[in-house]
Amino acid sequence: MSAKPQFFSQPLRYLRWAHVQKPAIFYSILVGSMGPVFAFAAPPIRARFGDYKRPEIPYTYPIPTTPRNTNISGYDD
Domain locations in the chain? Predict the structure, then answer.
């Protein structure tokens, strides 16, 4: 029986070994390596399906452009 292969010296051999002996490690490496791929692949795919960037949430309350009403009666503004 051969020894367990090291990941950084022989990555493909290690993945083949981990697929049989340690499937949780193999699939975690597989799913974790897909993250950077989807970071670059997802935005064009979303745009193709019509899902574009949403408008930003305003940080301040919008100031009205109409002139201020100066004849106030009571508590009305």
Answer: 11-48
